[in-house]
Every structure is written in C-alpha cells, then in structure tokens.
Amino acid sequence: MKKIALLSSLILLLTGCGNNNSGSSGAMSSSAAEKVYVAPGEYDEVYAFLSGGFSGQMSVYGFPSGRLLKVIPVFSQDAEKGYGYNEETKAMLNTSHGFIPWGDSHHPDLSQTGGELDGRWVFINENNTPRIARIDLTTFETAEIIEIPNSAGNHSFAITENTEYAIAGTRFAVPSPQKDIALSDLKGNFKGPLTFLSIHPETGIMNIEFQVIMPGFNYDLAHPGRDKSHGWIFATTYNTEEASTLLEVNASQNDKDFVTAINWKKIEEYVKNGGGEKIKARYAHNIYDEHTHTATTTMKDEIITVDPSKVPGAIYFMPIPKSPHGCDVDPTGEYIVGSGKLAAELTVFSFSKMMKAIEEKNYDGEAYGIPILNYDAILGGVVQQPGLGPLHTEFDGKGYAYTTFFISSEVVKWKLGTWEVVDRQPTYYSVGHLMIPGGNSRKPFGKYLVAMNKITKDRYLPTGPEMNHSAQLFDITGDKMQLLLDFPTIGEPHYAAGIEASKIIPNSKKIYRLEDNKHPYAVFNENDTRVERNGNIVRIYMTMIRSHFSPDNIEGIEVGDKVYFHVTNLEQDFDVPHGISMLGATTSELLIMPGATKTFVWEPKEPGVYPFYCTDFCSALHQEMQGYIRVSPKGSNIPLKWGLDDVYKMLKQAK
Length: 655
Ligand code: RUQ
Ligand code: CUA
What we know:
This protein is mostly beta strands.
C-alpha cells in the first residue's frame, strides 16, 4: 500500500513538468536572433550529431542555426537512402538473430586523439539488440556495425581519449551465458557484462577484446577517465537491489547504488598475458567497404570473458546515493559527477582521493568480492540543492559544469571546486541529456549548450497527439546562459556529440571516384551496359548520368524472373546523385551517389510494360530520365534485348 502511494506520487513528480509556455518575447530577444542567424550561403560553426533514439538513426545539425543537415541511417532501414533495402547495405543490419530492420540508438561519441576531438568517426550504441556503429565522417555513412553478444540493453557507452576502446555496458542484467532461469532466481544468478572493444587506429575497425562479467546490476551510463584518470572507465549502476519486477519501486530501495571504477589498462594487460576465459558467443560483425560499396557480415562465435575476482585491484565500487543515471568526468579528469536521480544533492567524486582510498584500502565492505570504497574518503564535493532529478553533466572547459534536471526541468550551471550554483535556466520540458561540443573531451568548445528535452507539449504548432521531441540551444559564453533557439529533433535524442566544423569540412568527400569503384557488378561505360540471364536470374548492368539510363528499354523479361538492377552512377560531380525505382518493386528506391553502384531486386508478377524512372530531380530533363521494361508471360522465350536510342544500335541482343 505504501509502495503504491510512493509510486503514484513519483509519477506525479515525474510528469509534473507543467505546460507553462515561456512565451516568445522573453527568449527571442533580438540579441538571441542575431546569435543564431547564419546568413544564407554561410556555414554553421559547429556540427552536432544527435542520436535518433527510437528512430534508430543519427541526425546531423548545424549550430548555431539549428539547420538539419542530414539524417544518417544507422540501425534502421531508411527508404530515403535505400539503406537496409538495397542489396549492398542489407548486411549492415544482420545480427545473430537474423536481419533486424530497426534499432534504438542512444549515445553518440566522437573519436579523440590525446583527449581532443579528431573528427574522424562518430560512434553510437544500440540499446535493444546490443550493437555499436561507427560512422565515417568523410562520407557521413555508417561504415561498421558490431553486435555485442552475451549482453542486453547496450546503454552505457563511451570511447576512451585516444579512441583505444569502446566500452559497452549492459543496462539489463542477464544470465551469462544465456540460459533458462526462473525469474524468481534472478538475484545472484544474473550478470552485468561490460564489453571492451578495441578500435583500430587507422581503419577504425572494432574488435571485441574482452568482456568483464560484473555482478548483475544495471549498468546505465559510462564515461572514460581522461588525462590523469585516463586508463579508467566509470559506469553508473542502478538496481543494485537486483529486482526483476516493478523496478520503479523495487530498484529504489537501497540508499546507495554504485559508480563502478574499472582500470581497463590492468584488465587489458591481464588478457594480453593469457588471462580470461574463452566462451562461445555468436555475434555479427558488419563492415561496409567504400570501394565495393557493399557491406559484408562475418559471424563470429567466441569471446574472452574476465571474472573480476581474478584481476584484483582493477575494479572498485563507489557508493552513490539513489539510482544514479549520468556519470561524467570533467576535462581535467579529476572529478567524476554522478547523478542520483532521486537524490537531493549532486555527488562529485575526486579521482585523486579515489586513488588514495584504493592505496589505503579504505573500504566499506564489498559486493560480490568487489571492494566498496569509503564514501567520505572519495567524495570530492557535493552540490547542495541543485534541482530535482539530475541526469547528465557536461563541462565548458572554463571550470564550470552544467547539469540537467529532469523533474525541475532546468539546466543548472555550477562551479567545479566550490560546488556553488551560479545559474539556472528552465528548459521546455523535462530535459534529458545536454551537450557542449567537445564537452566530454579535454578541450570543450564552451560556446554553446544544447539541451535535449523529453516532452514538447506546446512548444510548436500542434501536430496531433505526437509532437516531435525538442531541443534548445543556449549561449554559454556569459555568466548567465542565454536561450537562443528551439528546434524539433528526429526521434528521441539521447545525447549528442558536437565538434567544430573546421575539423570535419576539409575531409568531407565530394564524390566516389569511378576508378576506385570495385563493385563486382559495376559498369563504367555505356557500351558495356547489358542484360544477362542465368535461368530465372536476370542481371541488368545499368548506368545513369544526366539525364538518361543505359539501357532504358529492355525486353525479354518474364513473369517469375528475379531481376537484379545493378546501377552505377557515372557522375563525377559533387552532389549529383540519381535515384531509380521500378513500378511494383517491393523495396525502396536506390539513391546512388556519384561514382557508386547499388542494387535492387524486382520480381514482376504480371505481363505488361513497366516504367522505371529517376527519383531525384537531377537536371532540367530529370522528368525525361525514365525507361521501360517489357514483361512477357513465363516461358514465352522472347529474346533478351536492351538498348538506348540508336547511339548504341537500339536493342542489342544477347549472344
Ligand atoms: S539516457 S536522459 Cu539513453 Cu542517455 Cu539519459
Ligand atoms: Cu537523374 Cu533525376
């Protein structure tokens, strides 16, 4: 009874974000308008990569204007770009469970060198079917997706400061390895695997090096140490109660949960020296090759697991009040901010004090053999009464931290070291993550702050029961944060990563060079375009260039054929993609970048004459960019013919 009462008051609290429109006059002063104005044709200062949450994708914005620059398909099929629909990219969505057309993307993180953003890759984790993706920032395309086996709810995710490792921690404790266990036997029998993937310094390719089999708590968010704390990873846990039901009550019983501190260098060394245990674990590793324009899946079946008790001195628990969510390390690497969602204050740990407590073995008991450090000994400071429901913290590099408060719906600025609150600004509504470009590196670009809000309500023109999530841009150069801009987001932005545009622009690719195209079905010359039959498999080797396809007339296709359109875009000009789609094809269009080759399959069901056309308005004669395919009844043995006007002696015939 008491539990239920607590529950309903909690719900009230959590949804009581209000509807009080801030009004447009206050926020949109003329100075704010000036600050977000990027004149037509001018460039933004910053790229921001926002996760798409339940859209499974990542969106790219320019700031300060808030222009949506691109949506990069990552974990979900995307009909606009043909991603996950065309034959070349389907493999990106393969997993040990088969082809999965959707994912839940959470926390983007940019590659770093020496603790500074280097603009090479942006990584993002998938929460539902645990995976990590790497996006190449020369092409803004997903280059790799690796599945995390023996894990669930890949939520705590971070990249170390030299991009040595990606860490992927399970948000849901699971049996390890998976097996059939009664849910009432959860406690003590489930595990919390934390997976460490190395990242190749040149290619970026990820490899699962080891998995630390932690106690069966929920590992929520992770942050790497940096500078002096480089070599450590910090991850929050909740549900140290190990409840399996009504977690909103049952996982809020313990006064304190933990921030886990892991010395990954120690574990790396232990594994290098032959430590750890190989176990069977099936997982997919999908890599997109920019030269063949094709993704391939390799199924793997083994990982190395590490039992924490075998590596003494590598793992500690730091007790922290009340179900912490965010876990953020300041640019100097000294302070670790843990956000107890239900705590009245914000707890900040000191890395030097943590090292001292470890040295002095200043423990407060242990959990599953892992020492619990003495809370008072490692406490760096406490921010008193900062707000309600702290979630995430970022840093401006000038000694200030900015924390979001979900329940009181605000961003609070406070000073590292003195712990005093210096400013607070409301957010509309119920802010989750926030992002300062480079805010999780050694060198933040402390000019802008983006707050990502969970509830939109009356901020925009109503669009039926569902409103897109909203984000807000603040100027943080002054003493007080200044709200500059509201903008809607794609899906739910759990976190974002921002970087100065100057670090990306010089490497951004303009075309794919035809001479680098190694696609097995590419053709580079209209004279080589052709149609080939092998049984009921028909392959069309087609090209596209402004403003025609070659061939554009094809005969000899029969009902029951499986027709592959292998289409190469011969353009070598920046931003001239062509599209192609076929009446009745049960897949998306192909949108083909200059110099690339892509494929779709069409299985005609009825005799007739069917048009295909270019789907991207590419020239004044785009409407003329079309063609026909004649489909005859099965077994009619009409010879294959194809052609393009009389330039190629209309209707060449298969020999
Ligand atoms: S979560 S609102 Cu997926 Cu990053 Cu904290
Ligand atoms: Cu090519 Cu429109």
